[in-house]
TrEMBL record:
Identification of the protein by name: 2',3'-cyclic-nucleotide 2'-phosphodiesterase/3'-nucleotidase
UniProt keyword Ubl conjugation present: no
Family under the similarity heading: Belongs to the 5'-nucleotidase family.
UniProt-listed PROSITE patterns: 5_NUCLEOTIDASE_1, 5_NUCLEOTIDASE_2, GRAM_POS_ANCHORING
Coiled coil: none
Domain Gram-positive cocci surface proteins LPxTG, first and last residues per copy: 684-717
Transmembrane segments: 691-712
UniProt-recorded Gene Ontology molecular function terms: 2',3'-cyclic-nucleotide 2'-phosphodiesterase activity; 3'-nucleotidase activity; metal ion binding; nucleotide binding
Residue stretches of biased makeup (Polar residues): 650-672
Length: 717
């Protein structure tokens, strides 16, 4: 994919240098016109970005370093590409738009939304500085524009030099659009003025994800119905062509548009609205530069979705019939190309200068030392096994909610917690820990809530989370590389890591050999008691999940805590207050992925049956001794019982373990790390072959013992 993107970027830069002749030669833009067509056709160029998420410079604040070679990104590089197109095509014939999710996503944007909030300081937002310099004509709000409240969004819209659109964001009090629904932009094609109507719609999911910021203030209309309303109005107002900025993904395969459902991703359906010429999609972080939608009447619309984090800029060269200023594709298929920011693309030095002081202040902030860690804690395996670093999140969340529940009717209700593996690269290194270490672990601006949940609701919650794993053959080794990120059938895309939840405060197995909905086994509370349907817990939960983010079953959960505590800040404050992070204080390996049903205590059912049979045999032999057998017989029976006890699986000598430490060395566990269980730390279950081998050895020894007993009795007779 990267090679293709780089190739596209090279082609785009060639077009920039070679001009319209090169465009005609490649079949891009208006195609190879004859002399008569050249006189009647001009060109308007659309450039678009989406889901920039605060990435101004090619700088990873969590790594405190530039992004690696081949993975470069950021608006400072995108600006260079945009300026190149404007210089070649003429600025007055280039329309530049952004598709939302701009002011959230990096420590830079977080700092000026929370630490030195622009609504209080009056300082210009770094993204406003950047976008004003690049020269955008319009932007639509994304769902993350609402993360910091409507007041901060209002301040940002005041600071930018272009309209921020949101036609389907509706005020609760007067029923009017909260933001400008659309704008009419004047450009020039072949010396003549052309009017572009730019409509902005955004995913209605914000009503769920940012309910705490938006409830009672604004609501959301369906994007398709909104486009049907405004496209004709824009035409009547003088729009020659219509561009829709849709902060929404393309319609998932199999989805039927239903306006009553306020569906999250409907950009394909919006593009099918008559009169739409080009639609910029986003929100789903997919790199899909070009797709053509053909309506029932044969007319076409082009959908382009640039890559996220300013990894690319979409370029669409629109052939304009200057007679009526409409798009005339002729025999050419509508097409967009991707201008990639990776590789040999220079940074715009003016942007670096514009935000230099804000960038440096952010670096100083995230590199502030706030405590120390006794041993390295990594998130690299958190998406398939219980880890100390994920337990750190849940520990802080649980403590926060428990403290709030003191002296309330819920003070004796056990608190459990959810946490998601947001990052596979986050790490708390042994030694000093900084704010960026914590921010790299918890990358979203979520707040903490607490909800009441019953045992049956808890099981449903866990079963839904377990969809994340692909079904595996019973008894097979579980491979996280192929067994995770199962396809979400409804959305027709892999389930991301952040939509998998691990819970603390309870114990459970996830048996991935079972079908979805039947995977949670051995669900017990902290005392080892099986969780009943009517048992009650308080679940510490982030606002995204509590509001239904990821479509978790949370609609019926009663809220008992919501003090708008930001989770990331709570983690930072905990480290500051406690000074030392020691995983032994909170790490509890309470869940694991297995491929066969495990008995209580961690043994699979086959092993348990073998143990029961061995115990019965040993008891039978012991009975024989008590009936008059000699001391040799009794000793042999005792030895048989001892050996058969090893068939339990926790200390099986066939696997090279030492029965004295209770750890199976075949699993690579170290008794010094506090993991006494052979399956501790989410270790993978034994294969069927290993189990059969263990049982076979135990059975052979039992048979040998029985034979010796028989032989001894024969001698006695």
């Amino acid at each position: 994919m990267r090679l293709r993107t780089l190739a596209s970027s090279t082609l785009a830069l060639t077009l920039i240098v070679a001009g319209p002749a090169a465009a005609s030669a490649t079949g891009l833009g208006s195609g190879p016109p004859d002399e008569e067509q050249e006189a009647d056709t001009g060109e308007l160029t659309l450039l678009a970005t989406t889901d920039v998420h605060g990435h101004v410079l090619n700088w990873d604040y969590f790594a405190d370093a530039p992004y690696p070679d081949g993975e470069e990104l950021g608006m400072s590089r995108a600006s260079t590409l945009i300026n190149g197109v404007k210089e070649t095509k003429g600025e007055d014939s280039v329309l530049l738009v952004d598709n939302g999710d701009t002011i959230q996503g990096t420590p830079l944007t977080y700092y000026y939304a929370q630490q030195e909030r622009i609504t209080e300081t009056g300082e210009t937002h770094p993204m406003a500085k950047t976008y004003n310099h690049v020269g955008y004509d319009a932007q639509v709000v994304g769902n993350h524009e609402f993360n910091y409240g409507l007041d901060l969004l209002a301040k940002y819209t005041q600071q930018v030099d272009f309209p921020v659109l949101g036609a389907n964001v509706i005020n609760d009090d007067d029923g009017r659009a909260h933001l400008d629904p659309y704008t009419l932009v004047e450009k020039n094609v072949s010396g003549q003025e052309i009017t572009i109507g730019v409509l902005g719609v955004t995913t209605p999911g914000s009503r769920i994800w940012d309910k705490n910021n938006l409830s009672g203030e604004v609501h959301f209309d369906d994007p398709v119905e909104t486009a049907k309303k405004y496209v004709p109005e824009m035409k009547d107002a003088g729009a020659d062509i219509v561009v829709v900025l849709s902060h929404s993904g393309k319609d998932p395969d199999g989805q039927t548009w239903d306006p009553s459902k306020l569906q999250e991703n409907v950009s394909t359906s919006v593009a099918k609205v008559p009169g739409v010429d080009v639609l910029v999609a986003g929100h789903t972080h997919q790199n899909e530069p070009s797709e053509v939608v053909t309506r029932a009447d044969g007319t076409k619309a082009l959908i382009t979705q640039p890559n996220y984090w300013a990894r690319s800029v979409s370029e669409v060269d629109l052939p304009i019939d200057v007679a009526d200023m409409s798009i005339d594709w002729g025999s050419a298929e509508p097409e967009a190309i991707s201008l990639a920011t990776q590789g040999d693309v220079a940074e715009d030095p003016q942007i670096a200068d514009l935000i230099d002081s804000q960038h440096r202040k952010t670096i100083d902030y995230v590199n502030t030392t706030i405590g120390s860690v006794t041993e390295t804690m990594s998130a690299s395996t958190s998406y398939y096994e219980d880890t100390a670093i994920l337990d750190f999140i849940s520990n802080v969340q649980s403590e926060t909610v428990e403290a709030a529940m003191a002296d309330t009717e819920y003070e004796d209700v056990p608190v459990i917690s959810q946490a998601s593996p947001f990052s596979r690269t986050a790490e708390f290194p042994a030694g000093d820990i900084t704010i960026r270490d914590v921010a790299g672990l918890y990358v979203f601006d979520n707040t903490l809530g607490g909800v009441e949940i019953s045992g049956s609701q808890l099981r449903d919650y866990l079963e839904y989370s377990a969809r994340y794993f692909k079904q595996t053959e019973e008894g097979a080794d579980f491979d996280p590389a192929t067994g995770t990120n199962a396809i979400d059938e409804e959305l027709d895309r892999p389930i991301p890591d952040y939509n998998y939840d691990a819970l603390s405060g309870i114990d459970y197995d996830i048996n991935v050999s079972k079908p979805v909905g039947e995977r949670i086994e051995n669900l017990t509370d902290e005392d080892g008691k099986t969780v009943g349907d009517d048992d009650t817990f308080i679940l510490a939960i982030n606002n995204y999940r509590q509001s239904g983010g990821g479509d978790y079953p949370v609609d019926d959960l009663n809220e008992v805590y919501n003090e708008q505590v930001e989770v990331r800040q709570a983690l930072i404050d905990w480290v500051k207050d406690n000074e030392v992070v020691d995983p032994h204080d909170f790490y509890d390996e309470n869940w694991r992925v297995v491929t066969s049903t495990q008995g209580p205590g961690g043994d699979d059912e086959t092993g348990a049956e073998a143990q029961a049979e061995a115990d019965a045999q040993a008891e039978s032999e012991a009975d024989g001794t008590s009936d008059g057998g000699d001391g040799a017989d009794g000793a042999m029976a005792d030895e048989t019982a001892d050996v058969s006890a090893d068939a339990d699986g926790g200390t099986t000598s066939a696997n090279g373990s030492d029965a004295s430490n209770g750890a199976d060395s075949a699993n690579g566990s170290d008794p010094s790390d506090g993991s006494g269980d052979a399956n501790a730390g989410g270790e993978l279950p034994r294969t069927g072959e290993e189990l059969a081998s263990t049982i076979g050895i135990a059975a052979a020894i039992i048979a040998l013992g029985a034979g010796l007993v028989w032989f001894a009795r024969r001698r006695r007779t």
